[in-house]
Structure formats: C-alpha cells, structure tokens
Write a structure and sequence with these properties.
Blueprint: E1 10-19, H1 22-29, H2 33-48, E2 54-59, E3 62-67, H3 70-86, E4 98-107, H4 117-128, E5 134-137, H5 138-144, E6 152-159, E7 168-174, H6 206-218, E8 221-225, H7 232-241, E9 251-255, H8 265-273, H9 283-292, E10 296-301, H10 307-320, E11 324-330, E12 339-343, H11 359-371, H12 382-391, H13 396-405, H14 411-417, H15 421-425, H16 446-456, H17 462-474, H18 479-487, H19 492-501, E13 508-509, H20 510-517, H21 522-530, E14 535-537, E15 544-546, H22 549-561, H23 565-583, H24 603-615, H25 619-628, H26 630-635, H27 639-656, H28 662-678, H29 682-699, H30 702-710, H31 713-718, H32 722-739, H33 746-758, H34 762-777, H35 780-783, H36 787-799, H37 802-819, H38 822-838, H39 842-858, H40 867-881, H41 883-894, H42 898-906, H43 919-922
Parallel strand pairs: 4-5, 8-11, 8-12, 9-10, 10-11
Antiparallel strand pairs: 1-3, 1-4, 2-3, 5-7, 6-7, 13-15, 14-15
Helix pairs in contact: 2-3, 3-5, 8-9, 9-10, 11-13, 12-14, 19-21, 19-22, 23-24, 23-25, 24-25, 24-27, 25-27, 25-28, 27-28, 28-29, 28-30, 29-30, 30-32, 32-33, 33-34, 33-36, 34-36, 36-37, 36-38, 37-38, 37-42, 38-39, 38-40, 38-42, 39-40, 39-41, 39-42, 40-41
Length: 932
C-alpha cells in the first residue's frame, strides 16, 4: 500500500504495530528472519489495502497508521491478526507475534505528519499490549461502537501509560480466531503489585506477622509451611501488602495451585510479571533475565501443587539476581540451599495476656457476626465458642466453616455436633463430582494454558483448564476438599499411616507409632510431617507427633473407606491396655506405687479406645480399660463419666452377646458401685454392690470376693446406717482373716476405722490402723493414698495431739499430692485446717477450708463421712474469727489452686516450735519417723 497524500483529520484513529520479541526471533532464525519479516509486512499491507487507512511509517518490524474511522481501524486489526495466525509459517517458532494498539483523538496533519500527543498515547497503548493482542483506548472503544456480531471489547480497567499522568481505560479486542488470555498490560501502574483484595478482615496473628516479616527482611527465601486451611495464604498476602513500598519493582502474587504441569510454573510467574514466551528460548531464562536487575518480592502460593518445579524456578530466580526475594507457601518444604522454613502455628485458643479473647475465638466471633447479618453472638455463647475452637484446634479454615454453620445453629449445638466434624463443617456444601477432565488434572489457569499453547502452536485445552481451575478454587470450599488436596499426593505407605494415626486422640511418640504399625514408620512419618499433615513437636525426651482434629476426622473417614477400621482400632485398644499396664510398673517391670498422674496423659487415648469398645469392638476389653481408670475417675471428679462408660459397655454386651467371665463382671460392678457412691447415687451404689457380690461368689475367687465384700459398708455409710455398716465391716474383716485374704479387704479396714473415729472409739481405731499399715505398704495400688496416715491424723486431732496429727497429715498430703490423689488431698487439707484451728492459727485454717471446698466443688465430690465434721469445725472457726474475717480468709483460700493450698499446708510451722519447753530444744532425740 502506497502512502496517501491526504491524511485524515479531525477524529483520527492511530494504530501502532510491531513484532513482540523481534530481536530474539531474529537471533533464533538468523538468515531466515528476513523472509519472515517480509512476509509479515506483506500480510499487513494486503489486509490494509482494502481500507482507507494511511501508512505513515514503516520501520523494521513496526507500522504506524492513521484511520479516519475507528470501526474501520478495529476491523483492519482484527483481519490482520487473523491473517497472521492463519498463515503457514516455516515453523511454529518462526511465527511472528504482533501486538497492536489503537487510540482515537482529535488531530490535524501538517506537512505529511501529525504533531499531537494523541499519537504518543496511541504508541503507549501499543507498548502495553502483548504479541497477538489488540488493545484500544476508551476513546477508540467509544467511537468504534457498534461492533460487528461476535466481536466485543473486554474492559481491562484503568492503567497509567508511561509518560502520562492520568489513567487510561484499556480494552482488549475479543473475537473468534483471536487469542483471548494474556498477562496484565505492560503499564506503569503506581502501585506495583497484584496482591488479591481481601473481602474479610484479618484477625489476630500479631506475633506471627512480626516474626514472619523479620524473616522475610533477613532471608531471600522463606517458606511458610502448614496444613491445608492453616491460613498460610492469608498471612502471606497480609504480610506482603504491608511491604509493597520496600520493593520498587513490585510485589507479585502467583498461585501455583492452578498449574497443571511442572513445565508451566515458570510460565505462570512470567504471565503475572507481564512476560511472554520468546521463540526458541526457555521461559525460565526469560524470567531470570527480567528479574536479574530488579528488586521485587515474589509470593508463590500453594507450591506443594508443583514442589519440584517450584524449587527449580526459585533456585534460578535467586541465583540470577540479588534483588529478588521469594515468600512461598506450601504444605512441604523445598529443601533448597538458603531456604528458611517457618511453620505456621494454629490460631491460639488460649486467652491473651490481658484476658481478652484468643485469636481463634476472635476470628469465630468476627465471622459469626457476619454470618448472622451483623448480630454478634450472645455473651452466653462464649463458653461454647471456646469449646468449638478448641475442638477445631485453632485451624482457620475450620473456624470459617464453623461460623457459616452458626447461621442455623447455636454455639452449643455446634459444639455438640463436632464429633462428626467433617459432616458438620461441610454441611450445605456439596462435594463436586470430578468430571473426566478434572480427574486427570491437578490445576492450571486458563490464561497460562492458552499462553503456552500459543507459544508452542498447540490448541488451547480450554475444557481441561476450566476444570482444573474449578478444582483449584474449590479446594478450600470444604474441609474434605482441603485435606484431599494433600492426601492424593501421598504414597501407599504414607497414606496408610495417616489413616491409622486417626485412631489416636492426641500426640504419640515414635515407639507408639511403630507399635501400631508393627513396622518402622520413620519414612512414611517423615513424608507426613514434610507435607504438614502431621505436626512434629520436639521435646527434651524426644519428638511427639499429632494431627489437627479436622485432619484426624478426614483420616478416620478414609480409614473406614479402606476397610481398615476394625484392625486399626483393635490395635489401638491393645496399645491402650499395654499403656495402662506400664503405668503400674517401673523400669524393671516390677509393680510400683500407682501414680494417677501417669494416667492423665492417657485419658484421651483411653476414652477413644473405650468409645470403640462400646460401639464396634470388644466390650470385655472395654471393661478392662475402665478398670484401669477406676481410681482416676473418682479422684478427678469424673465418677459420672465412669458410670456412663460402664452403662455403654453393658449395652454392648447385650447387643453382641459377648461372653464375660463372672470375675470380670464382679470387678466392673464393684467399680460401678464405688462410682455411684462418689456421684451421690446411693440406690445405684447399693444395687451394683449386690450385683458385684453375686458375680464374685459365682467366680469362686476369694481375693476378688474379699475386695467386693469390703465395699459393702460404703452404701450403708452413705445412707447413714452407721451401726449396720460397722457390723458388716467387722464380719468382712473376720472372714478375710479366716480366708487369709485380709490384704484384699483393706477397704473394710479403712471403713471400720472411720466409723470408730466417728463415734469416738479412738484407741480401737488406732489399733485397727496400726495393724493395717504393713498391709497398705505392701499394696502398690493402695499405698500412694496413705489412708492409714490420714486416719491416724484424724484420730490424733480427736485426741488433741497436734504434733502427731501434724506429722501424720503432712505425710498423707505429701503422698496424695505426689501421686495425683486430688480428691483425697482435699480431705487432708481440710484436716490440716482443723489442726490450724486447734493450734491457734484461725486465718490459715479458714484459708485452707476455702481452698479445699473450692477444689471439691470443681470435682463435684460428695462430702462423705467427713462432711459433718468439717462443717462443725468451720462453724466453730466462724464464731472465733467473726463473719467478716472468716469470709475474707475463706474467699482468699477459695482463689487458690489445690497445688497452692497444699504448698501452704506443707509450709506450716510444726506445733513443737510454738512450745518453748519442747523436748526438741532441751535434749537431742532421734529423728521421728513420719510413717509412725
């Protein structure tokens, strides 16, 4: 086309075109570049020949044209792009990718040229385009309307063109036969970042933000590790948004979750940075060259979708220039030199130092308020909200999903439903069925697929890319989808270990995992830790391993689907029985004094094992487990829970018909009777005591029968039948001596001593207790309670012997606190309070009474045979001190923890020290045994 003499004037549409990456294309093709350039010019001129556009300048690979009509200019560019893409080039790599820019403005030509800023604006619009793309200004879009059928202009938003202070709204020409997906326009935006805009507030994590910011400022590669839904992306974006000003070349967010092929990771990053493939050159080389001289932060999100490819690109970027820093989020680390791994903790579920709501509760409150239309949860729901976040282990995604459920449930209802965690959290969100394409793709963005397709000459996989984009977007819609995202990357051994670990309720050590699998678990366990599906928590004695509850719920569901639940949970029950047995033995395998503190860490596991025994396992195994927790339940104020577990196990026996030996039933009924008495259910206590006796007599085990008969007096005492109870105790003790099983009747001895003390038969009580001391010392399950010393201390108080009382009671208190008998320790603190009252220390006495009563109330313990005695002593103390002073001291004690009250009691001055003429100060004497 020859230049026109008459150039258009008035409203003129200017068009600039050039070949993207022409220098690289010339280097690639060598002598073959000139024919390609000539063919490119021919096609453009042939296309424009039928229009009235004026060719003003042709230089190298560039064209500058002017059109009197915007619609004609748009049509000419459309036709030219179709001609270029449909041409048969020598090779796909030789196809020139031409970018085009249009702008319409008022201009008058002079001397065959235009001296107008509108020309420069058109040139900047073209410079913002990518190869194969047609961009036009808002003025062109306005003047070109209406467009032909099937042709449209896509609004790309406002952009600041280089050299212009205002912002220009750019539009992309969209039509059949034209490529649609491109990186962001190459414009000089004032804020150099593409961080996603958050629609909800960021809650908490002040300490984590500060720590992570320090790491990013210090190290060039920081990887935020955590389980799915832990809040990695949200924290990374929040941090990055606060450091934009520190990176003059931008902060760029790249979602690797949507990348379907390892080779596309570099393309995804390049697309965000506005880079296009250069023919014949690896994309990563183009990327490294671009980043080498720039100072920028790249936020790579969800790198676990393509860990190896992400690691390779990161290594190349960091090696290519010192100004690049990378903040990555992943469920597993890269293991590359220079990487700093920071594991994101769950949101704190503990109140802050100022007593305010924990981060987890604050998030739940915020999201629940939004879910309920701006209405904040009722203050009465606070306790249940704390229960919810603790069950969810502070996992942010789980909390967000829980808040959605609070649209239709109260906090209490939600807390009760979390036994079915996945079903409750994912309610109302149907899991999408994967189509044939989705089943084989792990994710990719449409623009990257099309970008690579255009670079390689392949047809875009539009259906596949749309499918995997849905997969990437839906991975956080439900807890199941989130965990599945990681689960599908596991090998067979790691997946099996994850499923089997679901049977544990809490942290486990390495030997426990090995016991469960009967195999070395180090390799699969390492994989699970690396992928953040299991948390490793180092301790001085060795690391422990645990799953967050939402992940455990998912693994438990997979365990059932795999048909492995019966075997895995039976192994867990066997482990629980083994752990209970070990709690009674020392390192040498010999029995040791039972410490209930050894059972505290096992409580969660034993409850999980009991649940299985009562629903799908062996009730007989469950009764054995319950027996191991016999004293623990009562001493922790959980007698009612113990009764409920026994009722469930009885139901399981009736359901399955499992045969249970009479001896084991007798032991269970006896335990049930003691639980009922501690829980104030005296009729139930008597009923199960009678059942225990009947079963024990059928079993024919004299020791067992002695233990059961020794408990016969307890229901009578609880119902106030003290004379009958004393008669029964004497009968049982006499029978036990005759059968040589008196050590098994120790409970009857204690009950008899209490009854004798109650009616003032102090000498006989002391005699009975003296005979019982060696029996108690020989029984590891009894001696930690030091019941003999406790009762001897009460006898001494009744006699007015404060020295003996002090020494006996301190021995009992020290042993009970050392071995975890907290309920019994309260009785001892009460007794020491009586000692203080009788010894002229009324304020200390009132404080100890208050502390003991507060702990007993928290344990929901019945007062027992000592109750009237404590009340009478407190009434005397109130008369001595007066109401105001007694109440103040009592309230002060009630604020103490049991450990603090015990320490106060153990630090009391010995009564001897208050007597100046005490023999202790007048003559040397052998040290008195505290066990006398």
């Amino acid at each position: 086309m020859s230049p026109r003499i008459d150039l258009p004037s008035g409203w003129v549409t200017f068009v600039f075109t050039d070949i993207e990456g022409s220098t690289r294309l010339a280097q690639l093709l060598g002598p073959g570049y000139r024919p390609v350039l000539r063919e490119h010019r021919r096609l453009l001129r042939h296309t424009l020949a039928g229009t009235d556009g004026a060719e003003l300048l042709t230089e190298g690979d560039s064209f500058f044209l002017a059109f009197p009509d915007a619609a004609t200019a748009v049509h000419a560019c459309l036709t030219a792009q179709r001609a270029l893409s449909g041409h048969d080039w020598p090779t796909p790599e030789a196809a020139p990718r031409v970018r085009m820019g249009l702008h319409t403005g008022y201009a008058e030509p002079r001397d065959g040229e235009y001296a107008s800023p509108e020309v420069h604006r058109a040139a900047r619009v073209a410079a913002a385009a990518h190869g194969g793309q047609v961009l036009c200004s808002a003025a062109t879009a306005r003047h070109a309307d209406p467009l032909p059928d099937g042709v449209s202009l896509l609004d790309l938003g406002l952009h600041r063109l280089r050299g212009f202070d205002d912002r220009e709204r750019l539009f992309q020409l969209v039509a059949p036969g034209l490529e649609r997906s491109f990186p962001r326009p190459r414009t000089a935006d004032a804020v150099a970042h593409n961080l996603p805009t958050q629609v909800t507030s960021f809650v908490g994590r002040e300490a984590e933000r500060a720590e992570l910011r320090r790491l990013v400022e210090t190290y060039r590669l920081v990887t935020v590790l955590g389980a799915g839904g832990a809040g990695k992306t949200r924290l990374a974006v929040e941090l990055a948004s606060g450091v934009v000003e520190a990176y003059p070349d931008g902060v760029w967010f790249v979602d690797v979750a949507a990348v379907t092929d390892p080779g596309l990771v570099a393309f995804e990053i390049a697309a965000v940075l506005g880079l296009r493939p250069e023919p014949g050159r690896p994309m990563v080389d183009t990327l490294v060259e671009y980043a080498a001289a720039r100072r920028m932060l790249v936020v790579l999100d969800t790198c676990d979708a393509q860990p190896a490819a992400s690691a390779e690109v990161i290594s190349r970027l960091l090696a290519g220039g010192r100004g690049v820093r990378v903040l990555a989020t992943s469920r597993e680390s890269f293991g590359v030199p220079g990487e700093v791994v920071w594991r994101i903790p769950p949101l704190s579920v503990d109140p802050g130092p100022d007593g305010g709501a924990s981060d987890a509760v604050a998030l739940l409150l915020d999201r629940t308020t939004a879910a309920r239309g701006g209405r904040a949860p009722d203050p009465a729901e606070q306790a249940d909200l704390r229960r919810v976040v603790r069950r969810l282990d502070g996992l942010p995604l789980a909390i967000e999903l829980a808040a959605a459920r609070l649209r239709v449930l109260s906090a209490g209802q939600l807390a009760e439903r979390l036994d079915d965690m996945l079903g409750t959290l994912d309610a109302g969100r149907e899991e999408p069925e994967p189509g044939p394409v989705e089943a084989g793709w792990t994710g990719n963005q449409q623009d990257t697929v099309d970008l690579v397709a255009a670079a390689t000459g392949a047809a875009p996989a539009t259906e596949a890319s749309r499918a995997v984009q849905r997969s990437a977007n839906e991975r956080h819609l439900t807890m199941q989808a989130t965990v599945t995202w990681s689960y599908r990357t596991l090998g067979a051994r790691s997946a099996r270990l994850l499923r089997w670990l679901a049977v544990f309720a809490g942290p486990v050590d390495l030997s426990t995992v090995q016991w469960l699998l009967d195999d070395d678990p180090l390799d699969p366990l390492s994989v699970l830790v690396d992928k953040s599906m299991v948390l490793a928590e180092p301790h001085a004695s060795g690391s422990t391993y645990r799953m967050l509850d939402p992940i455990r719920a998912y693994a438990a569901r997979r365990l059932i689907e795999a048909g492995e639940e019966q075997h895995a949970r039976d192994r867990h029950v066997a482990w629980s029985r083994h752990a209970l047995d070990r709690a009674h033995l020392g390192p040498d395998g010999r029995p040791v004094t039972l410490s209930l503190y050894a059972l505290d860490p096992l409580a969660g596991e034993l409850r999980a094992a009991l649940r299985w025994c009562a629903t799908g396992g062996s009730a007989r195994s469950g009764l054995r487990l319950a027996g191991g927790l016999d004293q623990w339940w009562r001493e922790r104020g959980l007698a009612r829970e113990g009764r409920l577990w026994l009722f469930r196990l009885y139901g399981r026996i009736a359901e399955t018909g499992e045969p249970i030996p009479e001896a084991e039933l007798a032991a269970a009924y006896h335990m049930h009777s003691l639980h009922a008495g501690a829980d104030g259910e005296f009729a139930e206590e008597l009923r199960y005591s009678q059942r225990a006796e009947a079963a024990a007599r059928q079993a024919g085990d004299l020791g067992l029968l002695a233990r059961v008969l020794a408990g016969r007096a307890a229901p009578l005492v609880d119902m106030g039948q003290f004379v009958e109870a004393e008669r029964v105790c004497r009968e049982v003790i006499d029978w036990a001596y005759a059968q040589d099983v008196v050590s098994d009747a120790l409970l009857a001895v204690y009950n008899l001593a209490e009854l004798l003390w109650r009616r003032g038969a102090l000498d006989e009580a002391a005699e009975v207790l003296g005979a019982a001391r060696p029996v108690e010392a020989a029984r590891p399950v009894e001696r930690g309670r030091r019941s003999v010393d406790m009762l001897l201390g009460l006898v001494a108080l009744a006699r007015g012997d404060l020295v003996a009382a002090h020494e006996h009671l301190l021995v009992a208190l020290r042993s009970r606190m050392s071995h975890g008998y907290l309920g019994r320790a309260c009785d001892t603190v009460n007794a020491i309070a009586v000692r203080c009252a009788l010894g002229g220390e009324p304020v200390s006495a009132a404080r100890l009474f208050g502390a003991a009563q507060a702990t007993r109330a928290s344990l929901r313990a019945t007062p027992g045979i000592y109750g009237p005695y404590w009340l009478a002593r407190q009434a005397e103390l109130r008369r001595t001190l007066g109401d105001a002073a007694f109440d103040a001291a009592y309230a002060s004690g009630a604020a103490l923890r049991l450990e603090e009250a015990a320490a106060l009691a153990l630090d009391l001055e010995h009564p001897d020290l208050t007597t100046p003429d005490s023999p202790r100060f007048t003559a040397p004497a052998p040290r008195r045994s505290t066990a006398s």
